Amino acid sequence: MKLIFPTEPIISADIPHDYPIPPIGEEFYIRFETYVSDPEEWKKVKELLDGNGLTVEKVENGKIYLYEGQKVNLQGTIESDEYMPSIVQYWEKHPETRPDFPKSST
Which of 2, 75, 72 lies closest to 35 in space, CA to CA? Predict the structure, then answer.
């Protein structure tokens, strides 16, 4: 599987073939820095992540196209409720793929 980032020029990164893919319109969670190894490319990807995050726009031929931000009209779908348990299970088996989430204040 290959992630396609919304950058110019396009940046791509190979990820594990069995990594759970969120539904279209949902935010994509992975430890991006594990898969984007070039420092200049990582700088561009990190800027996207520091903004509004990255959302799945489409999946075609083993490529996952990401979109900057979130598509509001597609958030909170039933598919996302089913996706989250599968991604958490994957992270438990493959901790190197789990992103660092900001600590909440609660």
Answer: 2
